[in-house]
Amino acid sequence: MNFSPHRLNQLLQPISVRLAAWYALAATTTLACLFFAGYVLLQNHLINGLDLLNAAEFKQLKSHLGSDYKTLTGEVINARIRETTDYASVLFYINVDNPQKGMLFHSTNLNGRSMPDIKGEHSFNITMDGIGELRVSEYFLPPFEVSIGTPLHQVRSVMDGYMIVCLTLLGGMLLVSTSIGYYLSRLALRPVRLISETANHIHSDNLSHRIPVSEVNDEISDLGRMLNQMFDRLELSFNQIRRFSAEASHELKTPLSLVRLYAEKMLLDTNRSSADQDTLLELLEEVARLDRIIEELLFLSRAEANAITLNLKPVNPARFLRDFELDARTLAEHHGRDFFHTHHGEGCISFDDSRMRQVLLNLLTNALNVSPPGGKITLRSRLDEGLWRFSVEDEGPGLPAEQYERIFERFVRITPPNSEDKGNGLGLAICRSIVELHRGRIFATSASNDAGLQIVIEIPEVNG
Predict the structure, then answer these.
(1) Over the stretch 224-269, which tens digit does the pLDDT of each residue have?
(2) 78-84: long-range contacts at Cβ-Cβ below 8 A with a sequence spacing of 24 or more?
(3) Cα–Cα distance between 197 and 203 in angstroms, integer?
(4) Where do the domains of the chain lie, and which CATH numbers do they carry?
(5) What's the pTM?
(6) If we measure between CA atoms, which residue out of 108, 107, 100 comes closest to residue 144?
(7) pLDDT tens profile 278-294
(8) 3-state secondary structure of 316
(9) What is the 3-state secondary structure (H, E, C) of 405-434?
């Protein structure tokens, strides 16, 4: 498996994983430092033990040499300590040297060689061919210099075993500390996950929900309280906006009705010129357009406030679409386009047929506006296992993928340059509101011809 830096960064994205990694790293590093300190201390302790053995052997040799050692010749020294050194030859290597007369004695296991001397050091390590590494201690017994060496291979063997044990324990520590760290991080971050889940379920239609905060005064509780205060401000702002939108829309209806009434009265005046008549007709058209915008804004405000009640009843989608097809073909022919529809699946599903017809008319109107003359608008429908999925596809220029979500926002109008569409950019926002009231979803994607746009709607069966 290739663990690139990018892949490793992806794996470490969750904070629980990072906390577990930091915990495991800290615990393992601490244990490694302790093991290293133990390694140094144990090695020094074992080597110090060898120095004590060498010192004990020197005392034994000194006792065998006797109190008259200063007058002894090499032959006498050899006679007095040879038996003792041969008996201890498995453990000790011994040299007796006189700086003026040269080497006086060496143990049999040195095979006639003398141990090297390191100037200025009384205890040191050397390596000799055929013998190996020795721990050498030098003792002065004027006029003699006594060098006693002890093999270090047992110490090295113990230290190698210590290293293997340490590495094994470090590996186990890494695994165990990772598991414990991950469990502890998950446990510690549980309130954060609860905050995240609760905040994720708070939308514009349920801003009254709040994050549960414990009585413990810690950083996480402070975060929860701060978020709740933010949601309080958001709820207040949303309510003010909705109230303003609803009240402004309601208050505008009366003056618009008066403007329309005065314009219609003025049209009845036969003494007016044709230019004035055309101006009044345009005024009435704009008033009607503004009145539609107000109605749509009122609908959106009520939908966001859950003030709209759907008339849900079991409807056969096949029959519903056949009835809609008659009006759709007529509307398409009037704009010089063709309309086709297909449906698969039998059965009924609960939805508000009048609201769903409004959705289909909005989608059809948008498709007619963007499709070229002679273009085809296709409605595909399928009912399968309690899910009604249908889509409206056009042959227009389509949209870049980054615009697919944006087109469902209010007052967003993305139409071809030469389009005669005089919409207000609220149609798809209304479609989304109606679909969400049915607990469904709506989204845009590219058409099957990879050129146009396809709006897909999914309506599930609602029980209760």
Answers:
(1) 888 888 888 877 777 766 676 666 666 676 777 777 787 788 877 7
(2) 78/104, 78/105, 81/105, 84/60
(3) 12
(4) 15-158 (3.30.450), 219-304 (1.10.287.130), 313-460 (3.30.565.10)
(5) 0.50
(6) 100
(7) 888 888 888 877 777 77
(8) coil
(9) CHHHCCCCCCCCCCCCCCCCCCHHHHHHHH
